[in-house]
Structures are given as C-alpha cells and as structure tokens.
Amino acid sequence: MSNFSNDMKKEVENIKNKVEEIGTEKQSLAYEMLVEQRKQNKRLFIINIILCFMLSGLMCYTIWLLNDITVVETTNEEYNQDINDTGDINSSNIVNGGDING
Questions:
Q1: How far apart are CA 92 and CA 95, in angstroms?
Q2: d(CA 30, CA 36)
Q3: 31-67 pLDDT, tens digit each
Q4: 3-state secondary structure (DSSP) of residue 70
C-alpha cells in the first residue's frame, strides 16, 4: 500500500505541476498582451499629442494668413486725378497706328 500511496502522491504532484505550468502560461500570455497594449496606448497618445500640435499650428497659420490679407481702398479721386492729368483729349498726341492730329 505504501507503494500505491507513493505513486498516488507522485501522480498528484505531477498533476499539480502541470496545472501550475498551464496557469503560468496563460498568465504570462495575458501579461504579455497587457504589456503590448500598454506600449500601443503610449504610442497612440504620443501620436495624438503630435496631431493636436500640428492642428493648432495649422489653425494659427491660417488665422495669420487671413489677417495678413490687406484690402487696398481706391477712391474716385485717384481715378479722377488720372483722367484730369491727361489734359484735353483733342490736343493730345495719342499714337495708335499713326498720329491723330496729323
């Protein structure tokens, strides 16, 4: 009987060892998955921060460009001045294929 009990003890210990090995394999797989997920989350966080900076920089640049556009105001006085400086149209020497007065 002692031989049978020794064999049973060894068998029970072997089963316990196998169960522990299976448990540690599953635990290590789950742990590895958690570690990989943590690395991926860190990468995505850094990418999100970079994208936020790029988007804010693009918005600031767009606002700067929109503020840099200036509107040149022209008045009728400028046009009138140009017309008044030409003098009398009949006495001017405008050459377009020949002399008008000639």
A1: 9
A2: 10
A3: 888 999 999 999 999 999 999 999 999 999 999 888 8
A4: coil
The type of residue at 76 is N
Q: How far is CA 57 from CA 23, 44, 51, 54, 61, in A?
A: 51, 20, 10, 5, 6
Backbone angles phi, psi at 99, to 5 degrees: -85, 130
Coil vs helix vs strand at 99: strand
Site of tokens 């068998």: 11
Bridge partner residues of 95 (DSSP): 99
The pLDDT, as a whole number, for residue 59 is: 96
Q: What are phi and psi of 87, to 5 degrees?
A: 85, -160
Domain-wise residue ranges, the chain? 2-69
